[in-house]
Amino acid sequence: MIIKKMHDMGVKSEHAYMAAFASIGLTVVAWATSLNAEPGTSVARADRWGIFVGEWAPTFFGLGLALSHYEQQDGTLTDGAAHALRDQNGG
User: Fold this and answer.
1) What global pTM score does this model have?
2) DSSP H helical segments within the chain, as ranges?
């Protein structure tokens, strides 16, 4: 139901995959920023920020996969995504 609603709002699997990769990059940025924000603070604080943002990536990848399957059933899967899905499934 949520995937259908997201699809109806125009969210595509490619958008979720891009968000996942962006969150991976943002993880490094958040860690480095937190590490340099207050000199003398522990690395643990920076690690917590990095881990917090890093936990978003699997969620976005999961949404991308669910949207991709929905698009495949719906017939709106793009050529590039269809090719990637075939490669992933060994076809």
Assistant:
1) 0.71
2) 2-8, 13-37, 43-54, 56-74, 79-88
